[in-house]
Amino acid sequence: MRLSTNQLINATAIFLFLLAEVVRSDLVSSTSSDIRFRRYYRNSRRVSRSATAKKERIWPEGIIPFVIATNFSGEHQHLFLRAMRHWENYTCVSFVPRQAHHKHYITFTVDKCGLLNA
């Protein structure tokens, strides 16, 4: 079954959100992480919800550094970026390209079998 572009974007967005909730990695290891997220009600009252009570497991300021491996096509890289922008619009999470000072970050890559790894 081939996914439409919108289905692929939605699936990628869901994947990114779930990944950001449970993965925080650096060059050597991975540790679990949770993200705080907020819900907005119709009356514009903002309610904060927390996925964890452990503050050390939350991405600082909701900022998630990322690297997209060059083994993705330009089209796939663009889909990742669109999915990230989608989640930035609906959550307090922000995805930023990794810089040298970022100790923890997520990396998207494809292995030789074609499986997505992060």
Automatic annotation (TrEMBL):
The keyword Signal applies. The lineage of its organism: Eukaryota, Metazoa, Ecdysozoa, Nematoda, Chromadorea. Pfam families: Astacin. It comes from Caenorhabditis latens. Keywords: Signal. InterPro entries: MetalloPept_cat_dom_sf (IPR024079), Peptidase_M12A (IPR001506). GO terms for cellular component: extracellular space. SUPFAM superfamilies: Metalloproteases ('zincins'), catalytic domain (SSF55486). This is Peptidase M12A domain-containing protein. One of its GO terms (biological process) is dorsal/ventral pattern formation. Residues 1-25 form the signal peptide.
